[in-house]
Structures are given as structure tokens and as C-alpha cells.
Specification:
By secondary structure, the chain is of the alpha+beta class. It folds into 3 domains: about 5-200, Jelly Rolls (Sandwich), CATH 2.60.120.10; about 215-260; about 265-320. The chain is about 40% helix and about 20% strand. The protein contains 11 helices and 12 strands. The protein has helices at about 15-25, 125-135, 155-175, 185-200, 215-230, 240-245, 250-260, 265-280, 290-295, 300-315, 315-320; strands at about 10-15, 30-35, 45-50, 55-60, 65-70, 75-80, 85-90, 90-95, 100-105, 110-115, 120-125, 150-155. The chain has a 7-stranded antiparallel β-sheet with strand order 1-3-4-11-6-9-12, sandwiched between helices.
């Protein structure tokens, strides 16, 4: 596959230190390790811009491990054109390929491993642009960065539209003329790329797509309910459940409240309480204890467990023990 954006070549090198330094100048300081098992290092970095949004091509030519410092002032979508990458962003892990990209948000630790044949199209979005679009009327004080779900489904209907805009930008940049010679057109496309990503990809801003995509939200709710029902004993966190549903935690919470009347963690507690109730009724009061059954289902504060149980079933756990 020929490299994209060849008219906008910035770096080609087989020197690891030069690659680390020159790429760090564009993004941020990072650790870069290349494995000789994957072949010879052959770094190609091409870079062009649509307004202040960067559209980049990057490959290493060998197996590479990249561990950048936490991002502070930009977001980045990394979409493999060939090969695969394993990207850890905060507590989310994304295995990306031609159908699934990764999205890095400021403030999260990042660790990446690229396969030897990995070539990626990168979209660099300044934090200031994203937050200005996400919060048109910001608070007077500083705000936390908008957080996106790290996995981007390039085949989903909403993201496909945004991805077509990216390829339009690439095509225009490859031509070196046409549409993007107009500052007005470049600024318009820049804004569309920023707002389009906010509208297409789950995030915690007011422009997040949960209201526009009830089908996706319903799928997330169904996925998480199945996990809760099948494995209520697992030490789930909200982040774990959202990662399994491939959406942002806030998106999952809003979808659950809309469809179930309570958040996913409240649903998990209710299922665990029902399992504890069944075990209490079936227990042998000579050998079973309320403490053991409560702990089995994740209730370690006995007075809170007793209060929740009484509110739900109208009696204390000790009164239910062995009633069957």
C-alpha cells in the first residue's frame, strides 16, 4: 500500500532516536521501542492540516511499542490502514484494525503496540477546538477534558459519516489544491470534523450521541444486563461494564436510566440482592449464615445489607434464613 499524503512528507528515517525525537515534536514526549523481530525500522511520517486539525500518516515498518506521556492538549484518532495495534487508554483496551480505530483523550495514560505491518491514518484534534465545540458556554473556571470512549467502530452508521469526511480531507490534501485552498472551506471542514466526532462517538459532553442513537444505547443496555445476569458475582465496575458495551460510562448510565429507571450499578446490586435472597431461603440455618451469604454476593456492610433487604423483601435477612 503506498503511503498516504506523500505530498506532505515530514520524516523518513531508520534511526530510532531521530524517530522518537521528531515524532515527539509533533505529539508529545514518549518512549519508543522497536523489535528487530518485525524487520528493519523504516519510519514514514507524513503530515498535513485542515485548519488546525491534523491529518497524518505514520508507520514504523517493524513491531513497535509506544508509551507516550499522558496527552494534555489534543485528542487523536488512530485508524489502521493495514496491520493491527493494541492500544490501552486509561482502563480501556482496544485492539484496532481496519474496522475499529482507537481514540486517545487528554489525561489518560496510553500504551500502544503496533504490528510490523501496521500503517495508521491519524486525526489530530486540538483540545481547545473539541472543548469549544462541546461546551459553547463554558464555566468560568477550568473544566475537565471531554472524555471519549476509546474504541471507535468504523462500521457503525454514525461513525461512517464522520469517516467519509476524513477521507474527503485526505483526498483534497493529496490533490494539493481545490477545496482546501479556500480558508473558509478549510475552517468549515475543520469544524465538521470536530463536531462530527462529538456527535458520532460516545463521550461525556452534551453533544454525545446517546440521544440520537437509541438502537445503539439499547444494545449496550442489553449487553450489560446479560453480563449482570450471567455473572453478578464478578467485581464489575462502571468502567468495566461500559468497556464491555463499547460505549462511554456516561452513555451507559443515561441509557440505563432511560430504559430501566436506574443506573447499571443499581441494577447490579438489585440482581445480587435477589441472588442473596434465594440463597437465604434455601440455606440450612444450622450451617449457613447471613454474613457468609451476604459476602458471597458482594455485601460486606451488614447493616446496609439488612436495610436494603428489608426494604425489598419486608423482613430481615436473619428472618429469611432457611425459610424454605
Amino acid at each position: 500500500m503506498p503511503a498516504l499524503l506523500q505530498r506532505h512528507a515530514r520524516l523518513r528515517t531508520s534511526d530510532l532516536d531521530e524517530a522518537r525525537r521528531r515524532i515527539g515534536e509533533v505529539y508529545c514526549s514518549h518512549r519508543l521501542d522497536a523489535s528487530p523481530r518485525g524487520g528493519e525500522l523504516d519510519v514514514v511520517h507524513n503530515l498535513a492540516r485542515v485548519g488546525d486539525v491534523g491529518v497524518h500518516y505514520l508507520r514504523y515498518g517493524t513491531e513497535a511499542h509506544i508509551a507516550p506521556e499522558p496527552l494534555t492538549d489534543f485528542y487523536m484518532v488512530l485508524a489502521p490502514l493495514a496491520g493491527r495495534a493494541r492500544v490501552t487508554s486509561g482502563d480501556e483496551v482496544v485492539v484496532s484494525d481496519r474496522h475499529r480505530a482507537s481514540l486517545l483523550s487528554p489525561g489518560r495514560t496510553v500504551d500502544m503496540s503496533w504490528s510490523p505491518d501496521c500503517e495508521q491514518l491519524l486525526v489530530y484534534l486540538p483540545r481547545a477546538l473539541v472543548e469549544a465545540a462541546a461546551r459553547p458556554t463554558p464555566d468560568l473556571g477550568p473544566t475537565a477534558p471531554v472524555r471519549f470512549a476509546a474504541g471507535v467502530d468504523l462500521d457503525s452508521p454514525s461513525v461512517r459519516g464522520w469517516w467519509r469526511l476524513v477521507h474527503l480531507a485526505v483526498d483534497e490534501l493529496e490533490l494539493g489544491g481545490g477545496l482546501l485552498t479556500s480558508d473558509l472551506a478549510a475552517q468549515s471542514l475543520q469544524q465538521s470534523l470536530v463536531v462530527g466526532l462529538l456527535a458520532a462517538q460516545p463521550n461525556d459532553s452534551t453533544l454525545a450521541p446517546e440521544r440520537a442513537e437509541p438502537r445503539v444505547a439499547s444494545l449496550a443496555v442489553r449487553t450489560v444486563r446479560e453480563l449482570i445476569e450471567s455473572r453478578p458475582e464478578h467485581p464489575w465496575t462502571l468502567a468495566d461494564l461500559a468497556a464491555q458495551a463499547r460505549c462511554a460510562p456516561r452513555t451507559l448510565q443515561l441509557a440505563f436510566r432511560r430504559e430501566r429507571g436506574q443506573g447499571p450499578m443499581a441494577e447490579l446490586r438489585a440482581v445480587r440482592l435477589a441472588r442473596a435472597h434465594a440463597d437465604l431461603l434455601a440455606a440450612d440455618p444450622r450451617t449457613g449464615t447471613v454474613t457468609e451469604i451476604a459476602a458471597r454476593w458482594g455485601f460486606f456492610h451488614l447493616s446496609r445489607f439488612a436495610a436494603a433487604y428489608r426494604a425489598r423483601y419486608g423482613l430481615l435477612p436473619s428472618e429469611a434464613l432457611g425459610r424454605d
